Every structure is written in structure tokens, then in C-alpha cells.
């Protein structure tokens, strides 16, 4: 039996994790779940939101299913997600976005998979406080182009990091019958960092027999909201990938439907794209679909593609029927609770 680290998280995390485990049981998937609390409550009790025991568990299992964890804005501890990605070198963040028939949305033909480089770029966390000696030194190196009172973030982009994420995107396209890979960048302005990424993308594309094109990130945003069907697989840097994947989630009905996988050579962590939604925690109204679809990605990762396809079909069927939907998916005043929606998925299975 597969042993999997389970991080329920905080906010709505425990609720949607419970729903996800019910669906996995219904589809016949059994696992030995190593439950590892993490997040804000753990910070208060153990002095860290991500204790070493959690990292040790993932190192041992190589596989984790993770609920959302609250990350303070502007203050407090750094993102647990970023820490996990860097600790285990989970370089590929894969976020599929596909339209669900039955939802009243501007587009019914969205089918995009985003490959986001997950360890470099501005999310590497190399920052310097305003007025620090480090900033003064950087200002000196910048020859007067940088005010010494500025706060500074550095953007590392490496050839090796760029090559492996672009290669992963092309490999996915080949293995899944995809027809085009689009590199998204801002090399017209950031000629060294994004320029390096784009150069590597072109080199990898030249070695493949899959169509390739490239778009500046602002143009990509515009095209996604006007002609999303023109995209197939997108490969991009860390920050752009974070923004574009949320944009794509908006095209299909919201973050409640957005699944995510973080893949490295030695470990993989599967999580919903959305946050912990503390404003609705404990109310029993959260949409568990994103984590359920993330679990389906996990099943494909461990060779259970048949069970993954059954879960994905059940989700699509319940949404298409439109009778039992959570509040974020319907204008119906009598929207379903988390449990009622999960009951419908289990019945569909």
C-alpha cells in the first residue's frame, strides 16, 4: 500500500481534505496516510508553521497531498508552499485548466496546461530591506540607478532551471497528445533574465517536433481572455505562471476548480491552487473540487490513471447536471454544502 503524507492545512483545509479522502475511498484507492499538521496553529504550538517532522515525512514518502495553508501578507513567516518547493526541488508546477460543461461562462473551450518554473525567479526569496547595507552596496553597483532607500528583490534565472521546465513541458505535450507549447516571457524588457529563459526555450523547441510559439506576458494575458482556445501548453517563469494560472482559473469558473501538482525528481506534492479562505472556514460551504482534482493528478502520478479518469468524469457529470453545486458555482439560493456536493460525487462514482 502506498504511503502518502497528508497535510490538511488550516482554514477550509481540513474540510476539503475530508471530502477528497471520501472521493478517493469511493473510487477504490487505498493509501496509508501519514497525517502531518502544518500551518498557523502549528506555528503557535511548535514554533514553526512547517516543523521538521513534516519535511521528514515527505522525504520518506516522496508523495504528499496538501490542503491550503494561510500565508500572512507582508509580514510573518514565508510561504509554506515556497519552502516545500525549494526544499524538495519541486521544479515543475503543473496547473491544468479545462472548461466544465454546465457552467455559464464566456468560453466553453478552455483546455490549457500551465508549466510554471517553481524554484527560481522573484519567488526565490532573495530580498533586501530598504536602507540596509546590502541595498547600499547594490545601489553602488547599479551606478546610481537604484535609490539606496529602496527595498530590493533579486530575480535569479538559470539555464539549467529553464531547460528542465521547458523540457518537462514538451515531454508532457508529447505524452498527452498536445500539439503546441507556448513560452511566455518579458524578454523585451528583462533581456538578461527573461532573455536567458527565452533562448533556452527556443533551443529546446528546435529539438522537438511539436509546434512552438512565444508571447510577451502582457500579450499572453490579453489573448487568454479573448481567445483561450489558441493555447495548449504554456511554459513560463515562476511569477508569470502564478498569475497566468489564476487568470486561467477565472476562465473556467474560479479557483475552486483549479488543481495543481508540484513535481521534482525525488518528491511530488499535490495541492489546490486556492488559499485557505478563513472567512468561510468551518461553515461547511467550501468547494472541494480543486483538491479532489489535484488528488486525481496524484493518482496519475502513481500509475492509477483509470481511477483518476473516473474521478474527473464524476466531477464533470455533477457539474453538468447542475443540481448539486457549491455556492461559488451557482446562483441558486439553495446551494449545496461541502458534504452534499461530495455525496453527489460519491454517488456519481
Broad structural category: alpha/beta
Main sheet, how many strands, which sense, barrel?
A: 10 strands, mixed
Please report the distance between the alpha carbons of the first and last residues. Answer: 22 Å
| Strand coverage percent | 15-25%
Question: Please, how many helices?
Answer: 12
- Please provide the ordered H/E string of secondary-structure elements: EHEHHEHEEEHEHEHEHEHEEHHH
Q: State the total count of DSSP E strands.
A: 12
Spatial order of strands in the largest sheet:
2-1-3-12-11-4-5-10-8-9
Average per-residue pLDDT, rounded, comes to 93
Low-pLDDT residue intervals, each spanning 5 or more residues:
none
**Helical content (DSSP H or I, runs of 4+):** 40-55%
Quaternary structure of the protein: single chain
Gyration radius, rounded: 21 Å
Shape: globular
Structural features, described:
This protein is an alpha/beta fold. The protein is built from twelve helices and twelve strands. The strands form two sheets. Strands 2-1-3-12-11-4-5-10-8-9 form a ten-stranded mixed beta sheet, with helices on both faces. Strands 6-7 form a two-stranded antiparallel ribbon. Helix 1 packs across helix 10, helix 1 runs parallel beside helix 12 and helix 6 runs parallel beside helix 7. The longest helix is centred in the middle third of the chain and has 17 residues. It is globular and about 65 Å long. It starts with a strand and ends with a helix. The model has no long low-confidence stretch (mean pLDDT about 95).
Amino acid at each position: 500500500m502506498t504511503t502518502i503524507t497528508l497535510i490538511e492545512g488550516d482554514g477550509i483545509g481540513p474540510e476539503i481534505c475530508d471530502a477528497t479522502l471520501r472521493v478517493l475511498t469511493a473510487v477504490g484507492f487505498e493509501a496509508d496516510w501519514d497525517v502531518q499538521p502544518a500551518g498557523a496553529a502549528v506555528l503557535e504550538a511548535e514554533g514553526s508553521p512547517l516543523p521538521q517532522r513534516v519535511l521528514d515525512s515527505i522525504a520518506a514518502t516522496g508523495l504528499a497531498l496538501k490542503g491550503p495553508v494561510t500565508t500572512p501578507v507582508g509580514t510573518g513567516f514565508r510561504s509554506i508552499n515556497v519552502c516545500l518547493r525549494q526544499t524538495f526541488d519541486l521544479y515543475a508546477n503543473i496547473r491544468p485548466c479545462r472548461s466544465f460543461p454546465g457552467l455559464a461562462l464566456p468560453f466553453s473551450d478552455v483546455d490549457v496546461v500551465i508549466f510554471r518554473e517553481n524554484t527560481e525567479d522573484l519567488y526565490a526569496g532573495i530580498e533586501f530591506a530598504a536602507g540596509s547595507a546590502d541595498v547600499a552596496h547594490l545601489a553602488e553597483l547599479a551606478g546610481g540607478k537604484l535609490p539606496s532607500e529602496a527595498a530590493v528583490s533579486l530575480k535569479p534565472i538559470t539555464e539549467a532551471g529553464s531547460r528542465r521546465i521547458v523540457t518537462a513541458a514538451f515531454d508532457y505535450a508529447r505524452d498527452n497528445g498536445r500539439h503546441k507549447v507556448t513560452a511566455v516571457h518579458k524578454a523585451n524588457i528583462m533581456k538578461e533574465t527573461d532573455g536567458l529563459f527565452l533562448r533556452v526555450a527556443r533551443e529546446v523547441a528546435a529539438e522537438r517536433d511539436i509546434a512552438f510559439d512565444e508571447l510577451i506576458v502582457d500579450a499572453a494575458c490579453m489573448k487568454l481572455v479573448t481567445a483561450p482556445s489558441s493555447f495548449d501548453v504554456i511554459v513560463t517563469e515562476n511569477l508569470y505562471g502564478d498569475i497566468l494560472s489564476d487568470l486561467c482559473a477565472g476562465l473556467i469558473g474560479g479557483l475552486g476548480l483549479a488543481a495543481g501538482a508540484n513535481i521534482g525528481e525525488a518528491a511530488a506534492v499535490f495541492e489546490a491552487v486556492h488559499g485557505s479562505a478563513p472567512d468561510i472556514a468551518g461553515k461547511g460551504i467550501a468547494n472541494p473540487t480543486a483538491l479532489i482534482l489535484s488528488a486525481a493528478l496524484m493518482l496519475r502520478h502513481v500509475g492509477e490513471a483509470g481511477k483518476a479518469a473516473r474521478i474527473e468524469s464524476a466531477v464533470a457529470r455533477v457539474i453538468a447536471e447542475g443540481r448539486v453545486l457549491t455556492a461559488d458555482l451557482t446562483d441558486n439560493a439553495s446551494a449545496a454544502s461541502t458534504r452534499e456536493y461530495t455525496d453527489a460525487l460519491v454517488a456519481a462514482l
